[in-house]
Amino acid sequence: MILQALRQLARTPRLLVACDYDGVLAPIVVDPAQARPAPEALGALRELATLPQTDAAIISGRTLDSLRTLVNAGSGAEPAGSERDVPAGSRLELVGEHGAAWSEAVPARVGDVTLRLEPVRERLVALSTRFAGTHVEFKLHGLAYHYRGADSADVPAILEDLDQIERRFLGDGPCRVLRGRMVFEISTSTENKGVALTRLRARNGSTGVLFAGDDLTDEDAFAALGPLDVGVAVAGPRRGAAHEVADVAALGGLLRDLISLRRQWLREQSPFPLQKHSIVSDQRSIAVVDPMGSIAWLCWPRIDSPALFASLVSSPEAPHAAGAFSILPASKPGEPEPATGSPEQRYLDKTMVLETRWPSFRVLDYMDCSGGRAFQRAGRSDLVRVVEGSGRVRVLFAPRKDFGRQGTDLQPREGGLLVDDDPDPIVLLSPGVHWEIRQSGVHSTASAEVDLDALPTPGVLVLELRYGTASLRPGVVPEHERRDLNERFWSGWARTLKPPARARDAVLRSALMLKALVFGPTGAIAAAGTTSLPEWPGGVRNWDYRYCWPRDACLAAQALVRLGNTGHPMKLLDWMLGLIDSIGSAERLRPIYTVLGRDLGPEAEIGELAGYRGSRPVRVSNAAANQSQLDVFGPICGLVGLLADRGAPLGPDHWRMVEAIAGAVMRRWKEPDHGIWEVRGPKRHYTHSKLLCWHAMDQALRVGELLGGRRIDAWASTRDEIRDDILTHAFDERLGAFTLAYGLPELDAATLQLPLLGLLPPDDVRVTSTVRAIDAQLREGSAVYRYRFDDGLPGREGGFLICLGWLAEAWALMGERASAEDCFERLLACAGPTGTLTEQVDPANGEGLGNFPQAYSHLALINAALALDAPGATNAATIAGSP
Under a CB-based contact definition with an 8 Å cutoff, are residues 561 and 632 in contact? Predict the structure, then answer.
């Protein structure tokens, strides 16, 4: 029965395994200080903590110091937290004093507790003197009297005395009495192991829990388990625990079984790390190509349309259910299947033409940008897949309309396949390919084996997926000429840029990724190309980023301007002008729009999709579109200022937009909002939002000077008022840093922009102390977290790559070259083999998290490289045009 429960639990997306210590991981002994953990049990728990999507913890009545000493002595490990680069995912979480003491929390002073318990302390100490083999343990949140070593003849008298102490001193007081196995404990905390387990579940986003305990104090944890969780009692039954093992050794064996089952499920998942994917783009949509050369994601006709291929977020047990398009090696009839291995991938020079190279052939993928398609209305698009080489290949074509929720019928036609016969038809031009079509429910799947040497043009197979037409006529322009036009479309643009000498190739690749996110017909820039790729594998922090955040888009455009491109940034401003005109007032700017400039629909979940590595839900749309984010104004004015400095052809409409935004800031900057991180909670006075309001006014003043010598005193007065407000309310002397929000003494990596935007000089002591505090408390190796406060959402998240980039820039400004270089090299290392950057990085294994390609991450790489190339220049100076 227990093995069946373990099999089910091992398949949960985010697993938490938690145990008591005494009697569970370590045998019960007379002297608690000598309770060494059983190597098998502790080793298994530690190994569980290293597995992906798996967390492990010890929840004990012991003090944290005692737990650390015993656990580390039992494993030979260094004390927890002694190395900043120890992966968070490989740490064993320690929770002491029945949930009152956490390894991440600052403990209270022992003296405060013992003073409140002085009468009880005196009597327990006297009791320990009177009875041999007993002693008092002093904790941060109480006292514990241990009588496990007492003579059995003395136990009745001890219990009688303890009952008298409880009746006289603890009956109506604020303290709790906890009676365990030969231990009498008084705690000033209201926490218990059940509360601690629930908190761990919420913080880790756990979807399944195993808890093992043996004591009365473990009953609270067993009671907190859900119907699909597993409770294991050690050495005797416990109420709430459905399963039982004989002793500590048996628990070690059970945990080993769980490890084996968990590893098996994780192997079955086997999706590729997100940063190892690549993309192709026609500046209207993006196709994601996995490391095996399969199309794993494609939304048509626009980047924010429903998906035709979505195997990236589907179950590995049914990868074709959401759409896939693969080309893999095949063997000749009668021969064994070839050992596929992993192919090599690269982009052809400075283009978005992707090559996937196998031993005997290669696949070239691109979305056709020739003939001005990148700037034409979305609705007619081509994905071209060219196979060149020798031998046999197996092609699987399984499109699935609307994330697989709409039936997809494939019909053979002369020269290829017709995907339904809808108003928006889709065809696959595949001359010479003989397809086998299978029907499964409402979906068709086509497959074929092709001998490349037997084709009309030996060694060349061209597959052209066309959206918006039912025509299977051969193209007017030969494929090799179209490919050449597409290569020149991308490489010609890249040659116009002026990248820094530092990491030149990586900077150019990031610039190309930003260009790929530009929606050519309107000029909007999407935040990323995908939806619902998790910020915490197995968790629920899965958001749709296929839209345009004006803030993110303007920051991306600024990075392009710094590299010498003004065309895309100017078109983005045209889009912004049209947007503000359509809504009637800059004050009404929303945080997010579709790439067409329309309001988003309601946020919804696609229940049919399992999510990447079981990370549910898969979402479409984004509820943050309805938030208030006052930082939207600063990047728009900053972009206009940067373009004005570079001599771009700005006109009266652009000045009119700056006037409108400055007026909106003057009227709204004192309001609370939801901030850059889109916290789904109450509005606050976020420091970053105030900073960006200041930046908007500062840049509006500069634009006025650049575009005609205008000087508006009211703007200057508002700018100075905002600055004074930030300096008065946002710096916390005790924290030694600028805070996340006024009155909330928490760190926020976004405050790194204070010196980057020029509100304070980089040598200001408040700046340097903030940077050092963020580096010390929010950084973990390559991961720089946005913040660590409870934002109300379950589960953790990775470190944001844009925060790592900001930190690199801040160090460079401060003259800390070595620290800046270290951050920048870590940022470079987060890129996949073809240069893809995700939103975040998992500190446990270095894998990418979140949607990709992420505009924030790529613009961060560009800005950090520029800062290192000219370490004395600030972003503010660059925006303002200072030499």
Answer: no
Burial of 372 (0-12, 13-18, 19+ CB in 10 A): exposed
- Sheet containing 840-841, strands listed edge to edge, beginning at the edge strand earlier in sequence: 799-800, 840-841, 848-849
Q: What is the Cα–Cα distance from 203 to 792, expressed in whole angstroms?
A: 9
For residues 292 and 180, which has the higher predicted lDDT (pLDDT)?
A: 292
The closest alpha carbon to 805, from 737, 756, 747, belongs to: 756
Q: How far apart are CA 624 and CA 407, in angstroms?
A: 31
Question: Is the predicted pLDDT of residue 87 greater than 80, yes or no?
Answer: no
Distance CA 473, CA 475 (A): 6
| pLDDT for the residue numbered 648 | 96
Kindly list the distances between the CA atom of residue 663 and the CA atoms of 200, 207, 658, in Å, as whole numbers in the listed order: 46, 48, 9
- Is pTM beyond 0.70? Reply is yes
pLDDT in tens, 604-654: 999 999 999 999 999 999 999 999 999 999 999 999 999 999 999 999 999
DSSP string for 749-799: GGGGHHHHTTSS-TT-HHHHHHHHHHHHHTEETTEE-S--S--S-SS---E
CA 811 to chain centroid: 24
554 within 8 A of 635, measured Cβ to Cβ: yes
Indicate left, alpha or beta for 781 from its phi (over 0: left) and psi (-120 to 50: alpha). Answer: left
**Percentage of residues in the chain with pLDDT exceeding 70?**
94
Pairing label, strands 295-299, 307-309: antiparallel
Of 89, 93, 80, 77, nearest to 21 (Cα)? 93
Question: How far is it, in rounded angstroms, from Cα 643 to Cα 659?
Answer: 16
What's the mean per-residue pLDDT of the chain? 92
Instruction: Report whether 494 contacts 275 (CB < 8 A).
Output: no
Instruction: For 24-80, write each residue's pLDDT tens digit.
Output: 999 998 888 899 999 999 999 999 999 999 999 999 999 999 999 999 876 655 444
For 272, the 3-state DSSP assignment is: coil
Q: Which DSSP helix (H) or strand (E) runs through 878? A: helix 875-880
Q: pLDDT band at 113, cuts 50/70/90? A: very low
Task: Tally Cβ neighbours within 10 Å of residue 34.
Answer: 9
Can you tell me the distance from the alpha carbon of 503 to that of 828, in angstroms, rounded to the nearest whole number? 9
At 308-321, the pLDDT tens digits run: 999 999 988 776 78
Count the residues in the chain. 883
DSSP 805-860: HHHHHHHHHTT-HHHHHHHHHHHHHTS-TT----SEE-TTT--EESSSS-HHHHHH
Q: How far apart are CA 674 and CA 684, in angstroms?
A: 6
How is residue 360 annotated by DSSP?
Answer: S
Sign of the C-alpha dihedral computed for residues 747, 749, 754 and 760 taken in this order: positive
DSSP characters over 586-646? GGG--S-B-TTS------EE-TT---GGG----EES-GGGGS--GGGHHHHHHHHHHHHHT
CA distance 423 to 202: 46
Q: Provide the CB-side half-sphere exposure for 641 (13 A, CA).
A: 28
> pLDDT confidence of 799, banded at 50, 70, 90?
very high
Note whether 807 and 778 are within 8 A (CB): no
Residue 165 contacts by C-beta under 8 Å, 6 or more apart in sequence?
120, 123, 124
Helix, strand or coil, per DSSP, at residue 7: helix
SS3 track for 485-503: HHHHHHHHHHHCCCCCCCC
What separation in angstroms does the CA of 478 have from each of 466, 470, 475? 16, 19, 7
Distance of alpha carbon 631 from alpha carbon 76, whole angstroms:
49
What distance separates the 2 farthest-apart alpha carbons in the chain?
101
* Total H helices, total E strands in the chain: 23, 36
CA distances from 712 to 670, 753, 759 (A): 20, 25, 19
181 pLDDT exceeds 90? no
